[in-house]
Design a protein that fits this description.
- There is one protein chain.
- Helices cover about 65% and strands about 0% of the residues.
- It is built from six helices and no strands.
- The protein is elongated and about 65 Å long.
- It starts with a helix and ends with a helix.
């Protein structure tokens, strides 16, 4: 996810606005109660906390590839496992 969206600020936000958004987000998702959300907030903060990093993010955007685990988190638990049904249907289609 885009770090600006993660913190809920515009790409043209000032240092103070970004700091305030980060503080609000960490209060809403403290590390002892919601460590995954806190980690994502922390990563967003690290990505845009200074002017040079924000400029780089605005020019080039977020990195194109995410880690495999982040992609799995976006898919959700209910869609991670594919049972034998689709495989059996595919094999029947192929006539095997």
């Amino acid at each position: 996810m885009n770090p600006f969206e993660q913190l809920g600020v515009e790409e043209t936000a000032s240092d103070g606005e970004i700091r305030t958004a980060y503080q609000k987000a960490t209060l809403a998702h403290p590390p002892d109660r919601d460590p995954i959300a806190f980690q994502k907030i922390r990563e967003a903060w690290e990505a845009i906390r200074d002017e040079e990093a924000r400029l780089e993010m605005r020019l080039f955007g977020p990195p194109p590839f995410k880690s495999f685990l982040e992609l799995l988190d976006e898919v959700g638990e209910e869609k991670r496992y594919v049972g034998p049904g689709p495989w059996i249907a595919t094999l029947k289609e192929l006539g095997r």
